[in-house]
Amino acid sequence: MEPQGDISNPEALDPEALGFMCGIEVHQQLATGKLHSRQLGELHDITMETLPDDWPRVHRRLRSASGEGGTVDVAARFEAKRNRSFVYCQSPNSGLIELDEQPPLPHDQNALDISLTVSAMIGAKPVPLLQTMRKTVVDGSNTSGFQRTTLIATDGILDTEGGPVGIDVLCLEEDSARKLESQLTPRGEVVTWNLDRLGIPLIEIATAPDVKSPEHAKQTSIALGRTLRDTRRVRRGLGSIRQDLNVSIMCGDRVEIKGCQDLDWIPRIIRCEMARQLHFYRLANQLRTMHNFPLLNSDRREKSEDITDLIAGLLPLKLTDVSEIFSDCSSNMIQNGFEKDAIMLALPLPGFEGLIGNKAFDQNNSQLPRLGRELAGAAKLAGVAGIFHSDELPAYGIDQNFVDLTREMLDGVDAFVLCLAPKWQAELALESVLNRARMAFNRIPKEVRNVVVKKGSPEDGTTSPMRPLPGGARMYPETDIPPLVINESHWEQIVSNIPLTQRERAERLSKYEISHDQANQLLARELDDYFVNHANGLPQKAWATMLLENSGDIGLMALVLTAKEEGYVSKEGMVELIGSFEGEFPTLDEIAKKSEAMGLKPADASELMAIVESVVAERIDFVKERGMGAIGPLMGTVMGACGGAADGKQVSALLKEVIQRNL
Question: What values do phi and psi take at 121, rounded to 5?
Fold first, then answer.
């Protein structure tokens, strides 16, 4: 049965009817040092403009290598063609290991224990022998050309609001470097990286394709994030957790979508991808019908007849230099390109007139899928800024006359693509365009795509191509790190120390005499353990307030609050007293002596009453005029007369008593 649905209304697409499948990969940074170098895991908030001059910079190129099976991974082969070079900026927390000039060290023990803890929390089964692998990555984000990753556990279950979701694997791996800048040059793209993040431990969790709907994908991501945060040993903040979506419908194929930072956008991103896959399935059969080729089956599990040779014959690689035609074009963009030794190359696409498409929008104001955007994405991966195609011309300063002249030079072809770039780059870009145009006769390619991002959030939920979907050829064993045995006693220790869930923590706090707001804040700021450890014997609301309003040594704060309860320090003097110790941990007697020396000891009750009576007597006309409304203004006067050594509640009560007596 042919898939039904209007791509201009992605919200109305029926996931079940379209054979929707989805799995989620989450990558969470751990709050530890680096995984294989013992460098600190701190990040440096810098840009190219603020990059310190004294940070060493290393220039490198990377090449692809064959994996364990002797073949070069398809994604690695693609990256190697892009003619890119890399500049690595050595941050203070990166050394010879980050520069790939020294062998890695064994796993950071804390990171390993956190990954095993998460495995236990989701009921996954640990791998008895940990073998670190090298995962080929030649986009420059790893100086070595690979990422170290270790399979920790398999076969877990995650409870979500929409039902259980299987966990296929949990891995412990290194995070990549952070991109600072990318520049296009006549000799290729130059990418600058900051090495501060390279090597920070990541937990990678990959679910089974058990996600039932776009909305369930969001619920699953929330549940994954909550489980990881329950360890209290993961990093927080923007960029510390990243979600990837593996999405397909039955007439399409699996696509991995990266860059899903905002969980609220996940359903929309998925629905845009469903619409894209549906559109390109229909476009493929439209092209096949035009050329009397056998149609694609709507079920990807059913093999379709191979027409690769027919497509290659229909769309040969035939590039034509049309620079002379555009030599007097008034477009500033084109003239600026010629001044930088670029040429204008043309690629004919016979039969594609009207099928490349123009920009249009769906009911949510997201761009509708169109072949032109895919062709442009393929070209950009070769490093060019973009392309021009015949369906969108005349535009960009190219009038109809130049369109007609180009068609004439291409023997009257109905559709074509233009690329303005240095010769080698234009050729690579248009070769990529041709390959993508040939793919339009088939199902969508398996690939990695990136959410279109603008100012830190998705612009409209659509995606652009990044690279082919990698396969098993990218993995091979890491020979510098010996295998690690996870023995039974180690695992039992992990299982017996599984952290509390957020719900269990909330239930624990409900037994204490604190407000609902205080409980929520203690949980949100991960202070509830400190509260519980010292709550017995202290006034619980006051202890919660002290934790929420102050920072520093928890034990010292608890001791100062005890001193306040025993009358050694006033409430108003506690913060000043805490700050006076600066790393010391005094006894209760030492706190009492210092409080008295600093004038922070509460005034004697009789002395305080005398001060209150004196202040009221001096301001008796004001008191008689304002009545009980005089309490607030007189509070500051009394506290000042006491030198701050008074309890506010006590002063308020005494003022009330004395004022009532004088009215």
Answer: -65, -30
Record the pTM.
Answer: 0.85
What whole-number distance in Å separates Cα of residue 35 and Cα of residue 49?
Answer: 29
Tokens encoding 585: 């941990």
Q: Give the three-state DSSP class for 329.
A: coil
Q: Which CATH superfamily is domain 308-440 in?
A: GAD-like domain (3.30.1360.30)
Tokens of 367: 């761009």
Work out the angle between the directed axes of helices 109-121 and 488-495 (0-180°, nearest 10): 70
How much is the pLDDT for 551?
Answer: 85
Q: Where are the chain's structural domains?
A: 10-288, 308-440, 502-597, 605-662
Is 211 or 187 the better-scoring residue by pLDDT? 211
* Confidence check: pLDDT of 455 > 70: no
Residue 74 has pLDDT above 70, yes or no: no
Q: How far apart are CA 142 and CA 448, in angstroms?
A: 18
> What is the tally of helices (H) and strands (E) in the chain?
21, 21
As a whole number of angstroms, the distance between CA 604 and CA 647 comes to: 11
- Residues 268-316 pLDDT 10s: 999 999 999 999 999 999 999 999 999 999 999 998 889 999 999 999 9
Burial class (CB in 10 A: 0-12, 13-18, 19+), 10: buried
pLDDT 10s digits, 14-66:
999 999 999 999 999 999 999 999 999 999 999 999 999 999 999 998 776 66
User: 527-532: which pairs have CB atoms within 8 A and are 24 or more residues apart?
Assistant: 529/232, 530/554, 532/508
**Which residues, other chains included, contact 475 with Cβ-Cβ below 8 Å and sequence gap of 6+?**
67, 68, 133, 134, 135, 136
Dist. CA 271–CA 460, nearest whole Å: 11
Percent of the chain with pLDDT over 70: 95
Measured distance CA(346)–CA(324) in Å, rounded:
12
Question: Is the CB of residue 206 less than 8 Å from the CB of residue 25?
Answer: yes
Q: What are the angstrom distances between the C-alpha of 214 and each of 16, 29, 269, 510, 511?
A: 11, 25, 8, 35, 38
Residue 632 has which token pair?
Answer: 């607030």
CA distance 560 to 43: 35
